[in-house]
Amino acid sequence: MSVQPDSIALIEVIKQAVPHLPLVIDDHNKSFEAYGLDSIDTSAIFMGVEEAYDIAISDKQLEDLECVNDILKLLAVQS
Fold it and tell me: CB-side exposure of 71: number of CA atoms within 13 Å?
């Protein structure tokens, strides 16, 4: 049985990668761009996720990651 990724833990990984992110990420479907993040910020998030969850995210997968829920779905598939 696989363990579902924890959104709270993922938010902490994201906040560590991008410390200037708003204190509350209340909409997991809101795009990273809508939170004011640029490509450097999102790259830091993806690298933090790869390290924290010991996964590799392909370039194709990166194209589809636009919000927290997208990352949660990816983690669910890879766990």
Answer: 27
